[in-house]
Amino acid sequence: MGGMRMGQRRSKRTRRAACVALAVVLAAATAGCGPAARTPVSATWDDLFGTVITVSLHDAMDEGEADAVLAAVRARGEAVQNAMTAHTPGSEIGAVRAASGRAPVPVSEDTYGLLTLALEVAALSGGAFDPTVEPLVALWGIGTGAAAVPAEADIARVLKLVDYRRVVLDGTDRTVYLPEAGMGLDLGGIAKGYAADEANRLLDEAGVTHAILDFGGNVLLRGGHPEGKPWRVGIRKPVPGEDGYACVLSLRDGTVVTSGGYERYFVAEDGAVYHHIMDPATGRPAETGLLSATIICDNSARADALSTACFVLGLDGALALLGALDGVEGVLIASDRTIHTTPGLADVFTVADESYVWVNAP
Ligand code: AMP
Ligand code: MG
Question: How many CA atoms lie within 13 A of 305 on its CB side?
Fold first, then answer.
């Protein structure tokens, strides 16, 4: 059941959506209740990117105008999804896979640009983030209803097809070539972030100054709350079955993106839990002692790829990667419930649940 719901005034549905996301905006904690308080105009969609998306516009604007902006955001999100989702029939990414080992495939500027960014983050992270992970994701089938632990021999066979360094981009013809049959691309770790950036660009063009975009775990903030306060973004407790927030960030602008193993997983017959973020070094779900990795910066696609990369790298690797990047901050929650933050967050970060310990609190 899909659905566009527009012009809702902080509906029940919007609140439910807020609970689904990994990092969510704690709107209730910031919205004023005095006469000057404005109600946002929001839309919630549950049929894009396999997640729940909520866009809330907090500017005083007439509803027709707001609805037109929301419709444009929705249309752009659909276009991004249709080009970049690995298993959507007719997607560009699917066409590249179908032609693997045979021929380069021309792609849109969008897809080419995002793949270029994905390969950059792959190189930065030494392949912890790797958009050629598709055959491995398909082999495990996590999130498909047909998930199963594969045979070692199958993992080994498929791992030979996973290597971002083998992707051939040609900027002149704007083509993508995967040189071996069976190779494939999966932009599931970055495309939602790109869709959020594109939505943000549309809001910018429309002159919207205060807004929250929540693309199921990818939160993008514009301009702080209209009453002057920052937005408060909660990072969920990264444990299946535990509701609520481990910590909170107070921010006016920027994007907050979380990757966590608790988001999509299956439980095998022996009770072992396998989640959806693969470690291309082992061919198995990443087990590095991190429960979640959150990235804060000004580009949601980059944050999305980096959050996946940091989750795979584990605490030390993630801190080393983040330390080498300008303008990128991170919150890493380890399985012993310790929280590690990068130095730039000292003034905007608070712990929200006493069972978590902020190890490097100032
Ligand atoms: P995210 O929730 O952003 O961390 O992205 C997870 C999704 O990215 C998975 O559902 C896969 O589609 C894909 N993925 C899984 N492992 C990796 C990886 N190591 N590098 C890049 N993408 C991955
Ligand atoms: Mg990601």
Answer: 29
Instruction: Identify the band that residue 105 occupies on the pLDDT scale cut at 50, 70 and 90.
Output: very high
* Same domain (yes/no): 240, 341: yes
Whether residue 244 sits in one domain with residue 329: yes
Pair 262, 349 in one domain? yes
Is 303's C-beta closer than 6 angstroms to any atom of ligand 1?
no
248 and 356 in a single domain? The answer is yes
Point out the ligand 1 atom lying closest to the alpha carbon of residue 280: 19
Long-range pairs for 262-270: beta carbons < 8 A, 24 or more residues apart: 262/238, 262/291, 262/292, 263/22, 263/217, 264/142, 264/143, 265/142, 265/240, 266/142, 266/143, 266/147, 268/148, 268/149
- The pLDDT of residue 246 is above 80: yes
Distance of alpha carbon 21 from alpha carbon 53, whole angstroms: 9
Judge whether 275 and 282 are in contact, CB under 8 Å: no
Does residue 92's CB lie within 6 angstroms of at least one atom of ligand 1?
Answer: no
Same domain, 241 and 323: yes
Number of Cβ within 10 Å of residue 112's Cβ equals 17
**pTM (2 d.p.):** 0.91
Same domain, 248 and 354: yes
Tell me the CA–centroid distance for residue 277 and ligand 1, in Å: 5
Q: Give yes or no: residues 163 and 204 share one domain.
A: no
Using the mean position of ligand 2's atoms as its centre, give its distance from the Cα of residue 154 in Å.
25
Are 339 and 276 members of one domain? yes
Neighbours of ion ligand 2 (CB under 5 A): 189, 259, 304, 307-308
Report for 33-47, 167-181, 204-218, 236-250: range of highest mean pLDDT: 167-181
Q: Quote the tokens at residue 101.
A: 């080992």
pLDDT beyond 60 at 239 = yes
Mean pLDDT, the chain, as a whole number?
Answer: 88
Find the domain containing 325 and state its range. 230-362
Of 177, 209, 244, which residue is a domain's last?
177
